[in-house]
Design a protein that fits this description.
This protein is of the alpha/beta class. Helices cover 42% and strands 14% of the residues.
């Protein structure tokens, strides 16, 4: 039987691939793990909290997928090296890395009670370490393995703040801007110095309700939208926040052979937020 040249399903097949996802116990990254497992990948969900990692892994295995939950610290290179070594020992390789670790810090966020002039340096540094440094350190570890294999795929998680800094969160905005710049740099470096079959891309989610931003977008007492939440909805042409499922198509495209000639880009997944001028 002649193969259908328009059948793109093989291009999205990840059978035999091994994927590592930092912050794998979180809302968004655990769903990414579910999606990768659904198309054949063995998924290692890496999280600071063992319970969260195992819960996400168990959700995948309950559906017939292959997954393991591992506690580690994405801001500590030795911790990530130990994880990478374990995965290579158990599975022989790591094909895909998703750098999902990130977040903000209340003391790096301006408010009526905390001015820009009083933001604390340790809080600012912690935001950079969690968002940018963790991405760099984890990429160092896993990209070395990919260089030895001569192939691999890294997906970083940027943000709308990478392109247009939001009010109140200067450290987070700057750190996410650094992630986009680093994505471009690493894509060129790995392709030129090691193998054109090592690709590095990023996605820039718009606004999703997560544990990190819930206290900014909704009122803790009533659950209603805050003024900031309403403002974000008003500047999102699709008039809603994103759901974890909204990210999955782009994630699968970027980590699969379907995007084999794509590297060094950041794809917004934002309901039109970045396209809207406000008028």
């Amino acid at each position: 039987m002649t193969q259908n040249p328009y059948d793109l399903r093989p291009a999205f097949n990840l059978d035999g691939k091994v994927a590592a996802i930092t912050a794998g116990g979180g809302v968004l990254c655990s769903m990414m793990g579910e999606a990768l497992a659904a198309v054949g990948a063995t998924v290692a969900l890496l999280d600071r909290y063992q319970e969260a990692a195992e819960r996400a892994a168990n959700s995948i295995t309950a559906k017939g997928g292959k997954a393991v939950g591992i506690a580690c610290d994405a801001t500590d290179r030795a911790s990530m090296q130990a994880v990478c070594d374990r995965l290579v020992q158990e599975y022989g390789k790591v094909d895909i890395l998703i750098n999902g670790a990130g977040g903000n810090h209340p003391k790096a966020t301006t408010s009526a009670d905390l001015s820009f002039f009083d933001l604390e340096v340790p809080a600012i540094e912690s935001v950079f370490r969690l968002n940018f440094t963790a991405t760099l350190l984890t990429s160092q570890v896993f990209a070395r393995q990919m260089a030895a294999q001569k192939e691999g795929n890294i997906l970083n998680i940027a943000s709308m703040n990478s392109f247009r800094p939001l009010t109140r969160i200067p450290a987070y905005s700057a750190a996410k801007a650094a992630v986009v710049n680093f994505t471009q740099w690493l894509a060129v470096h790995m392709a030129q110095e090691y193998s054109p079959n090592i690709r590095v891309n990023a996605i820039a989610p718009g606004f999703f309700l997560t544990d990190q931003n819930r206290w900014l977008l909704t009122d803790k007492e009533t659950g209603e939208w805050t003024a900031r939440g309403k403002q974000i909805l008003g500047h999102t042409p699709m008039s809603r926040l994103g759901t974890p499922e909204d990210l999955l198509g782009v994630v699968l495209w970027l980590v699969s052979p379907a995007s084999s000639f794509v590297t060094g880009i950041t794809v917004p997944v934002d309901g039109g937020f970045s396209a809207y001028s406000g008028v």
